[in-house]
Amino acid sequence: MPLSLPGYAGDWLERGLDRQLRLAVTGLSRAGKTAFLTSLVNQLRHAGLDARLELMGCVREGRLLGAMRQSQPDLSVPRFPYDEALASLEGTPPGWPSPTRGISELRLSIRYKSRAGSRHLFGEQRSLTLDLIDYPGEWLLDLPMLQLDYWQWCEQMAGQLRGRRRSYAEDFLRHAERLDPAADADEQQLADISARYADSLASARNEGGYTWVQPGRFLLPGELDGAPVLQFFPLPAIAEHSRTALDALPASSNYQTLARRFEHYKRTVITPFYRQYFRRFDRQIVLVDVLSALNAGPDVFDDLRQAIATLMQSFDYGNRSLLSRLFQPRIDRLAIAATKADHVTPEQHANLLSLVEALMAEPLRDLRYANIPVRALSLAAIRATSARQVEHHGERHAALKGTTLDGEEVLMFPGEVPSRLPDADFWQRQGFDFTAFRPAPQAAGEALPHIRMDSALDWLLGDKLR
Ligand code: GDP
């Protein structure tokens, strides 16, 4: 029997629209992007075989058939190193994959059966092309710079440099405070002070655990490593000079040279990222390592809160937002996930989720999301521990069993996760002990163990697999 035209046209339209999805994964460095993407690809490739994905509707309905890797469309973007990541996890001893440090991409084609409908008694086979893009969350920290000129940026940074992370910036401050804004610029001197600035950001990040840095690219320059476009820094003593006097300085002065480089950075680094990549993402998951911040103490935790608020500005689609005005992005679904949930015992997972929700509450309210659905999650991309019960003085307690990075087997209770933003009382008790674990030994060709990756996949892809 010939198909009636409206039904046929409907089918055609549905397929045409739903065949492709660009899903971006981001998070600040060490949030768990590489582990997440490795696990995501692994779970989908093992779908219909040994992957545990019961929280995906299409898996429960027996409709997810599997996924295959395809060659990626954009040959100028590095490939996400999936095979290398898997080789580390399957090594002896197993190791975490080396983190990616720039943007990378991977394309999968997912095969599934459509839901049986009135016209199709049995669902027909379809495929969804999924482009996965991984990029550093640090790059999103730069968005607010587009609204500032160099003078305003120096003013903002001066406060931060002298704040709680001053100890990491001492060397930079000593050199930058001595620089005369009116003197003729000396290339070598500016390159030297820029390197000290970048070092101060790196040690605040690596030694102190602080995440809010600007420019974010200085930490993860990607292909711009060593490029002159990164050779600028804020003048910490800006307040001692009048803005009018600085504006009147000749083009060859330190101040004018740095201001020009600042503008150049905005134009040639920040803007192109949003234009070429960000604007083309359909969906986004932002990964947040809440547990490490909780472990590091109140200053670092508060800093993470600020970093997240800044990062979220890139998802502010309000009509008047900077982002909408400049780039007209099209992300239609967003997930925010607390990673490494296998670092806490299962009964703490609900608290971890409430804590992420509490962290997001303010940015979400302020940023007028209204029209993009957002979901908070907690997950472990690659579960490295197993949950146990131990008896102590006749009582049963939850515990975790795992192997530390040094290869020592431990049975421990890491502590309680607060369900709200932690208060002074929590910090006084300092009841949290975050130990890094080695991934569990992994037989070659087996699906990676995880916690709630299927829930994340269901939220991010489920509606496209109908
Ligand atoms: P990236 O910098 O965002 O790509 O972060 P990675 O994916 O490289 O993760 C950084 C580190 O966090 C890893 O080396 C692991 O030690 C740890 N990690 C990441 N994901 C998990 C997870 O699901 N479970 C556990 N236990 N550790 C994780």
Automatic annotation (TrEMBL):
Among InterPro entries, the record links this protein to: YcjX-like (IPR007413)
Classification via Pfam families:
DUF463
List the protein's name: YcjX family protein
